[in-house]
Amino acid sequence: MKPISVLLTGASGTVGYEVLKQLMDFPNVNLSVFDKKYPGSIKKLEPFGKRINLVYGDITNSESIEKIAANQDYIIHLAAIIPPVADDFPETARLVNIEGTRNLVKQLEKSSPNCFFIYSSSISVYGDRLRDPYISVGDPLKPSPGDEYAVTKIEAEKIIENSSLDWTIFRLAAIMGGHKMSKLMFHQPLDTSLEIATPQDTARAFVNAIFKREQLSKRIFNLGGGESCRIDYKGFLERSFEIFGLGKMDFPERAFAEQNFHCGFYKDGDDLENILHFRNHSLHHYFEIERKKFSPLKRFGASILRKPIKYYLSKQSEPLMALRKNDEKMKQQFFSK
């Protein structure tokens, strides 16, 4: 394989870091990594030293992008503000997710017009699919009320599609791994149909995409783990709580929202798998990976403190907060009645 130049954004994120590690297996890839400088990115990226061209900068600043936009054959664009931060700071999310993508596109059109743009979008663009969980690429894009992240992803997709660059877009299912429990866990109805993908499999899709440009060009795909990665949200949480040593899912009634989230099963997810062959993991693999992260000592400690931990978590439930404060606007977001 002749040498190729690849630009990776968001390498310090969960999927981005896996992409970075996997690209290290390809000696003919000249890799440039563009990321925001903060303690987490320094800790993750600096150890790669001279094996990568590491550039710190601000994706919303055109001058920063100019430093890395020239002579790129491919870009894997993963940098984004994600929930719950995107929901709490929607203007920041718009600035990074939309204007940052616009900056990248403009600079690449000018400095690397033949670059193949590989973009990470989200299942959130389809909105609430609780009653119609089987999702295809051609389905309407209807973000749930208040889902600023989904809105930014749709806008970024349009920017890429309307550019003069060659491109492909992957709409990612629920990427599980490296998540912390937060208020977001209560936004999702317990009977949600959930298809996950591990960060490792997801990264493999982006890496393999470099070598399948012809089949992916100007196409949008749904990226999920497939049938072996499907479960309902309640079942997913029950198994997770068992692994963490937290026991039963004994939260107060109506702690979880009943509508207006996203997720579902990808009806056409095999289309991307048939091209890229990226799936190695099932739900079983995911839970085994998570189990290995928790030593018996950590699990024992969590089991001792399970009541105060779950009490603390329940305090983060915005659906419960809406009911207790009788906040009509929030109640309409989370509940149908």
TrEMBL record:
Q: Which GO terms describe its molecular function?
A: L-threonine 3-dehydrogenase activity
**InterPro entries given for it?**
Epimerase_deHydtase (IPR001509), NAD(P)-bd_dom_sf (IPR036291), NAD(P)_epim/dehydratase (IPR051225)
Q: Residue ranges of the NAD-dependent epimerase/dehydratase domain?
A: 6-181
A Pfam family (short name) is Epimerase
Q: Where does the signal peptide begin and end?
A: none
Stored Gene3D superfamilies: NAD(P)-binding Rossmann-like Domain
Give the domain of life: Bacteria
* GO BP, sorted A to Z: L-threonine catabolic process
Task: Spell out the family assignment given in the record's similarity comment.
Answer: Belongs to the NAD(P)-dependent epimerase/dehydratase family.
The record's section on PANTHER family has: L-THREONINE 3-DEHYDROGENASE (PTHR42687), L-THREONINE 3-DEHYDROGENASE, MITOCHONDRIAL (PTHR42687:SF1)
What is the protein's name according to its record? NAD(P)-dependent oxidoreductase
Species in which this protein is naturally found: Aequorivita ciconiae
